[in-house]
Fold this sequence. Notes:
Layout (H helix, E strand, L loop, with lengths): L3 E2 L10 E11 L4 E2 L8 E9 L5 E3 L1 E2 L2 H4 L10 H15 L4 E6 L5 H6 L5 E7 L14 E4 L14 E5 L8 H9 L7 E7 L1 H6 L16 H10 L2 E9 L3 E8 L14 H21 L6 E4 L3 H9 L9 E2 L9 E2 L6 E2 L11 E3 L6 H11 L5 E3 L1
Parallel strand pairs: 7-8, 7-10, 8-9, 10-11, 14-15, 14-18, 15-17, 18-19
Antiparallel strand pairs: 1-6, 2-4, 3-16, 4-5, 11-13, 12-13
Helix pairs in contact: 4-6
Amino acid sequence: MKLIQRKHCISCGGELLEVERFIDFPIFMGTTDKGQAEDLKVDMIFSQCKECGIVQLEELVPLDVLYRDAHNNSIGKVWQRHHLEFANFIKKYASGDVVEVGGAHLTLANHLIESEDISTVTVFDANLSAYNNTPRDGVFLKEQFFDSNSVTSKPSAIIHSHVIEHLYDPLVEIKKMSDLLDDGGYMFVSAPVIDKMMNDGFTNAMNLEHTYGLSKCLLRRIMKYANLKIIEEKEFNKHCVFIVAIKSDNTVEQNKYKQDPSYFYNFISNKKLEVESIKKELASPKSDTFIFGAHIFTQFLLNFGLEENSFSCVLDNDRKKQESRLYGTGLFVKSPEVLRNIDNPTVVLKAGQYTEEIMTDIVNNINSNTRFIL
């Protein structure tokens, strides 16, 4: 596998300087039924732009390899609420024929087509295996990565939810999307605020899929570069922002954006200390011990130094992941139901913005005597 070299900063084109390297990191944040010897790993190299300070990955996994399989096959309560609120946000403005980039679950598209003002929703996504919903009348699927050349008629709006952080060249790629719109057309964006997530210690913030430190200020710069004028912003769940922007060729480009990279360095140092603290708590186990999340959460903690043999297995609510192996590890995945008949189990739970939802479910519905390491 030949990696893609990011030779210049995604924002200003400046020179990149390596600042942190994670050795042999799994390329897929999901599960597999294949043998462990087949797992692909790369060095995850974080670099900082000398000019503007943005932290970003310097080597990128080819998209067809990175997204060969889907890893999000279930939608929890937080995501259900997200899709409903984002759909209601969009419905205030959108009409006619709209395009959604991403959205393999179809939840958002099915919400949107309920609007009398929206005629069609065409969804572009290569991971059709992740679809859990049947498309409603007016929702159409394109089994491919988004390509502006594949849009056969001019849309009135382009929508993308948690896509912009995945783009390898966000200024250029958002500009290509914007070029499909006439003046007055809308772009709707839902995006995680990566710098805030890292300040809060979330291990699902920057990785092989989220390859640069997206912030609200950087998001605004990307919109302006693409001739998009932001007319409304709305925060969701503290770590995500909804944006609606209108196409306008009169948008004035702003000065080069500079980022304070301290959020990244604080994350690295705090996470190393956190892992050492967890290891001490697990040194003399008083009960069966588990770790939650067949996902990047667990892969990150293991790469930071947690030992696989500290855990009986990985817990995850996604039935499609259960009884499979967490990619890049020797740990197998079980349903949290295994906690039901265990006296005082211990669960390492570092699932970012989903931690409270997961903990509440385990305590209320499975085993109220579970001890959590948060």
